[in-house]
Amino acid sequence: MTVRVGVIGAGMIGQDHIRRLTDVVAGAQVTAVTDIDSGRAAETAVRVGARALPDGPALIAADDVDAVLVTSWGPTHAEHVLNAIAAGKPVLCEKPLATTAEDCLRIVDAECSYGRRLVQVGFMRRYDAGYRQLKGVLDGGTIGTPLMVHCAHRNPTVPDAYHSAMAAQDTAVHEIDVLRWLLGDEIVSAQVITPRATSRRFEHLKDPQIMLFETAQGVRIDLEVFVNCQYGYDIQCETVGETGLARLPDPAAVGIRTAGQHGSAVLQDWKDRFGDAFDTEFREWIASVEAGGEPTGPSAWDGYAATVITDATVRSLESGQQPVTVDMKPRPALHGGPA
Amino acid sequence: MTVRVGVIGAGMIGQDHIRRLTDVVAGAQVTAVTDIDSGRAAETAVRVGARALPDGPALIAADDVDAVLVTSWGPTHAEHVLNAIAAGKPVLCEKPLATTAEDCLRIVDAECSYGRRLVQVGFMRRYDAGYRQLKGVLDGGTIGTPLMVHCAHRNPTVPDAYHSAMAAQDTAVHEIDVLRWLLGDEIVSAQVITPRATSRRFEHLKDPQIMLFETAQGVRIDLEVFVNCQYGYDIQCETVGETGLARLPDPAAVGIRTAGQHGSAVLQDWKDRFGDAFDTEFREWIASVEAGGEPTGPSAWDGYAATVITDATVRSLESGQQPVTVDMKPRPALHGGPA
Amino acid sequence: MTVRVGVIGAGMIGQDHIRRLTDVVAGAQVTAVTDIDSGRAAETAVRVGARALPDGPALIAADDVDAVLVTSWGPTHAEHVLNAIAAGKPVLCEKPLATTAEDCLRIVDAECSYGRRLVQVGFMRRYDAGYRQLKGVLDGGTIGTPLMVHCAHRNPTVPDAYHSAMAAQDTAVHEIDVLRWLLGDEIVSAQVITPRATSRRFEHLKDPQIMLFETAQGVRIDLEVFVNCQYGYDIQCETVGETGLARLPDPAAVGIRTAGQHGSAVLQDWKDRFGDAFDTEFREWIASVEAGGEPTGPSAWDGYAATVITDATVRSLESGQQPVTVDMKPRPALHGGPA
Amino acid sequence: MTVRVGVIGAGMIGQDHIRRLTDVVAGAQVTAVTDIDSGRAAETAVRVGARALPDGPALIAADDVDAVLVTSWGPTHAEHVLNAIAAGKPVLCEKPLATTAEDCLRIVDAECSYGRRLVQVGFMRRYDAGYRQLKGVLDGGTIGTPLMVHCAHRNPTVPDAYHSAMAAQDTAVHEIDVLRWLLGDEIVSAQVITPRATSRRFEHLKDPQIMLFETAQGVRIDLEVFVNCQYGYDIQCETVGETGLARLPDPAAVGIRTAGQHGSAVLQDWKDRFGDAFDTEFREWIASVEAGGEPTGPSAWDGYAATVITDATVRSLESGQQPVTVDMKPRPALHGGPA
């Protein structure tokens, strides 16, 4: 069986995922596309042999759409996801699930009312081979009970539109999700402290930032977010447990010795770093849809949690860099909470 | 368009490739299967929604077979490949292309008579991300003209049926192909020298072996083949040029510090090491078939060359460990030889 | 000329330094020894051909003592160092310079009154080849203006007498000194946060601790102190600047592949990790004494600064884990302050 | 007790060792110097407070010379060493022990007649921390019985006077000695094969060379000697045994990430690579002299063996690149041979 996917939003990320569903992942087909720019939707649809539809509701309702992919502008996510739930169709929504915690919660509630999980959020790191190995090591007990995690998230540079709150909302949000999953633990407080800012970027941006998180189990996480580090795209994660530590591997790279240096290239682009993870994410999502089961990836609850935690992080940044308690609602039974 | 593939040979490798064509690679479908064990063919066909056909000729002739995959027993390869050429259908043949140089040459000749390339040989290393990076470094001139290559091919262990000549025929053949491609050069002589044999294996087996190759350009290659190295599956390749060296990366692995050791796991299975390479190999092969062009991977000529070179290597091993000249026919125009 | 050294304190560290001065460092001779245990002093003196003297003052006054090494119990350091200054003799004092900031300041004042530097404090990391390389990289501008430093100081285990304040006083004090020197910057605030404690150690000990420092230039330092990490003695230091990062190397170690693992041994003992640094420290100290100049190593002021900063760190630990401002006196002209 | 050393030969190496004996190694003093250039001897003597003596015999005979260091021109080594044996004085002779196997043998015989070992040859690699670690791993059985060794010896460049035979005589001789010691085994045949020569050096030089050795136990060694590799001074040694492999570590170096590269500096000079090994060599030699025992380092027999093996290597290079059997005399009882 081929899973027929309707795509809402044919921008840069949408196009990349359409290519992925068409050329990379077996068993999937893009059958419908919609976009706020109807010309772009039409062109895209022609190129991949799909139909262009006028809007999200039409696409979600279409008979030849088994599952929905939401890659439109963030503020529109909640509405599309709620519509998909109402239609009982599986939906993969790029992060963020919604731009406010309230909207995330509405989605969680809608899904609970529907009675089974339909929503997956596009946190792709859980599909990265390195993180999966790392989780295997943690779960296997090799390093004992985790106590601390040291992370770094570095981009070579960011566009002018990037503002200080985005360090949490757009950048650290990936670590927030993947660390909750790695540790099987919840983040209960967040704090930001700001080192001297790099002079390599516009003045108003607080870059780098150091984020400090505490989990329910008392694990302390420090995360360097440095989005104008100049040298490359570099993701580090070291987990320290009672009997040892485990470190996310750097991507395999040819070692070169020349001109007095031994070295290897550092990636420059997150799409190179996590391209395989995206492929795996879509492959497993399509498989779960085909199997007719619930999605196996990050849930609506995970999307809600990420939003609440990034909100707390931003609040710390903007209000004196003190620790801010994460105020999360009770976890519903559908999402592993008490029945 | 979906490429409809007929598979000849549903043994272990065949099954793995059928899974790959079905579950992993987009745009492909296995429509026909045959196997010397007709029951196995039937079961497999049912499982993937294909037809079981009585034999190779029937499969190659089938209307719903656009391209042929040969994964049967080595001695049968030549016949199936020649039949596919006669039928004008693209064929991907697992290594070896044929078990004798003469048969390889018959295939090369048949393809030349047909007038365009149809055959690809299943040397998957050319699709490994590490080797591709390495080729990029070599081609980019970073290390200057290559002068030497140091390689190792280590397996944790091999089955009892493995005999000394297989070190060249089954094991080193992968380095032989990938080095010809990496260097863009031809191997002109081969020699084997045998260190003290490991006591960890049956007595008649010469293991390890050190193979020495020389290329037309004077590059010297040393290759350790050690198929009972105990510790893991480990592929090493270091190319030394006039101004530097470049080394195939080890697979990315979580770094762990525990109990007085800093380390990471070594893979145990070639299928883990080259699984992604196989996926890429098939993805690109399917794409070339879909595009209606010639295959872009290892050619019949490459299959012939690998066989002639492994023959010379085995001859050196069996006749006093002296250098043996590789006696290769002139390269036909279809394969880049003089017109 | 041979520098004649008198040693106050012949305990474990004292014995190691006596061996160093006798067997390792050229141009030095231990001529006098004193210890609170006069028997131990006598035995030691006999063994190395020195005189046993009754106490510090007698040793400092001795004609055949050109320079004084203080390796006695911490609370006695200040008195011996002050006496050496009064006698106008160079003195190398193991850390801490004194157990209170007030005593450190008395030493700084005494030295200023004397008019030239006589005191060196035994912070050996400045003599470690790796830290020196790292300082070369920082000073050379390779990574631009430093913005952050991520450090870890891990011991496999500590004795029962170790208490929570010692994490700053005995352990982190090495990072505090070496980071001030690496960055050429002053630490102006300190904070401790405590992750979930390891269960592998006695209950009252807060281990691990995460220390956060801020410098006058706004550099943010995070330092994991984990003194029961089980797996080994491991020192990490990564400096992140505006254009890159530089990382303290791990000690060179044989790489081993066996039994499915690629790895190398982690050191277990700080004496193995910093043995060469101690040798260099003493070699350079002896050379400075022989040359008749001022010591080139960590000064009394550095000893004072380290004490004030560790005091602030302990205060943060013991009083709610809030940031504590480091309250340092003005730097005197003799130590690079304003004239 | 201070060991009083007389130095024959005050050229570049001699000066470096005089500095070492004076400034670095405790318990040693250079008391006499001679050189073919008497002015240089006089200047050097004044500088370090020694006497300048007219020639080797006078220096060896001097009452204030306990031990002799020979760092003169290679062809003069044998005479000085024989004289030192005749005088019953310990002698450390820089490599080569003598320029011919015959002269080496005369030294071995003279020492045997004298009845105890006096001679140490200056092969410093046995004192390198990395090689010592590697020997510990081999002797500890971690990788099982050794079967193969893969080595490389690379220099960034060499002076014009360097000729093809020196690749064995001056360069590979270090591996020849250290491998005999590492493996506790004897080299019984040698062969050289020559890759395409680098264009970065004068035409008559065969560079690189690949040397193949076989030991009495059947271990196969391949050694790349590449003395104009451009990029740095780089020593590699990987030993493969029945159950694993062990690799000489690269020197510890600060890891740097900047401008799209992760890397570290490669050393350029053998004196940086083996400076610590020289220090240890001299420290242990002085200690053995002071203790009145036999030297613990490479013996006259080791010097003889190295010369015989390099002779065989050169013979292979110059006569068709065939394997050449190493023709070594029976090992005398003084050097571990049969009594």
Strand tally of chain A, please?
15
The pLDDT mean of chain A sits at 96
Helix content of chain A: 25-40%
What is the annotated CATH architecture of the largest domain in chain A? Answer: 2-Layer Sandwich
Subunit structure (chains A, B, C, D): Homotetramer.
Region (Disordered) (chains A, B, C, D): 319-339
Catalytic activity (chains A, B, C, D): myo-inositol + NAD(+) = scyllo-inosose + NADH + H(+)
Function (chains A, B, C, D): Involved in the oxidation of myo-inositol (MI) to 2-keto-myo-inositol (2KMI or 2-inosose).
Question: What does it look like?
Answer:
4 copies of one chain form a homotetramer. With about 350 residues, chain A is of the alpha/beta class. The first copy, chain A, folds into 2 domains: about 150 residues, NAD(P)-binding Rossmann-like Domain (Rossmann fold); about 180 residues, Dihydrodipicolinate Reductase, domain 2 (2-Layer Sandwich). In chain A, about 35% of the residues lie in helices and about 25% in strands. Chain A is built from 9 helices and 15 strands. Chain A has a 7-stranded mixed β-sheet with strand order 12-11-7-10-9-8-15, covered by helices on one side. In chain A, β2, α2 and β3 form a beta-alpha-beta unit. In chain A, α4 packs parallel to α5, α5 runs antiparallel to α9 and α6 packs across α7. The longest helix of chain A has 22 residues. Chain A is globular and about 55 Å long. Chains in contact: A-B, A-C, A-D, B-C, B-D, C-D. At the C-D interface, α1, α6, β12 and β13 of C face α1, α6, β12 and β13 of D.
